[in-house]
Design goal:
Layout (H helix, E strand, L loop, with lengths): L2 H5 L2 H18 L4 H8 L3 H9 L6 H11 L3 H16 L15 H12 L2 E6 L10 H8 L6 H14 L1 H4 L6 E7 H5 L5 H14 L5 E6 L13 E5 L8 E5 L4 E4 L2 H17 L3 H14 L1
Parallel strand pairs: 1-2, 2-3
Antiparallel strand pairs: 1-4, 4-5, 5-6
Length: about 290
């Protein structure tokens, strides 16, 4: 198995596999229903394979590649993707982390792991993908979690950040912070200084853009609340929005509603300071602590 496939996460392998299987089917001029008839599978099974929502049997991939008349190199690569989906678990699905993740958030982590781009507006917290361990601990402790529960939740938060630095297709992150996020001291001044230093460091990655909405910007769409907009390479997967509050979390999929959030993020981007000016403000606040 090629090293790049061996190193890929199961979530990414499911995404790559699904995209390529769909392309092969389209090239063969077949509908999902026709494939189901030819293979005697149910149509939902074909859909699940193409959308990357579940592990895939390598033998099923071979059957499809034969049907689509794929060449030997393509067949081997797709079988390798399928092998990873069957033999490995994504970290958030393991017994170590699963108890610390609410079902709704677990679904979000899976989507985040396969997204191409994330646009996030945060009004109160430094986003999880930018947090230090000390900052994350300071957030969880007032909620009266046990030390063991805090450890698990912080570990989940730290593991999520792998999407920004993974070797294959790192997530493109555009994040906008309310200035209050910078100035609200979480934990202690020392914790906050380290957090701001870390956020600025991550913001210098080529796949990360960070902006700040200053207090003097006036009214803007982000005042309606924080949100995360996820976009995917696979055109069959439409953009979605993730919303979370104290007691629940959910995904918005309706195209009209998602479009409003896309427009809102565009408006907030225009209102916020530019990337360099935002980093300068972060450094200014850090020195004041």
């Amino acid at each position: 198995m090629p090293d790049e496939i061996e190193a890929a996460t199961p979530a990414l392998c499911r995404r790559y596999l699904g995209m390529e299987l769909r392309k092969l089917r389209h090239a063969a001029g077949l509908t999902a229903g026709q494939v189901a008839d030819e293979t005697t599978w149910s149509p939902p099974k074909v859909t699940r394979m193409e959308t990357g929502t579940s592990p895939v049997e390598p033998m099923d991939v071979r059957i499809l590649c034969q049907l689509y008349q794929a060449d030997a190199e393509t067949t081997s690569r797709l079988e390798n993707y399928a092998f990873v989906t069957k033999t490995k678990k994504d970290w958030w699905q393991t017994a170590e982390y699963r108890p610390a993740i609410r079902p709704g958030f677990q679904a979000f982590i899976g989507l985040e792991a396969t997204a191409a781009q994330t646009h996030e507006y945060s009004s109160e917290f430094v986003p999880g993908l930018l947090q230090t361990e000390e900052y994350a601990r300071a957030i969880y402790q007032p909620a009266h979690h046990s030390p063991e529960e805090v450890d698990r939740r912080v570990a989940v938060r730290m593991n999520r950040q792998e999407v920004l630095t993974r070797s294959q297709d790192p997530l493109k992150l555009s994040v906008i912070l309310n200035e209050a996020v910078l100035r609200r001291v979480v934990g202690s001044p020392a914790v906050m200084r380290n957090q701001l230093t870390h956020a600025a460091k991550i913001a210098r990655l080529p796949n990360v853009k960070l902006q700040v909405v200053p207090f003097d910007a006036g009214v803007h769409p982000g005042m309606n609340g924080p949100f995360i907009l996820l976009k995917f390479v696979d055109q069959a997967m439409k953009p979605i929005v993730y919303l979370e509050n104290l007691v629940s979390a959910g995904v918005v999929t309706k195209a009209e509603s998602v479009g409003r959030y896309e427009e809102a993020f565009s408006d907030i981007t225009a209102t916020a300071l530019g990337h360099r000016a935002s980093l300068s403000l972060i450094e200014e606040v850090r020195k004041e602590l």
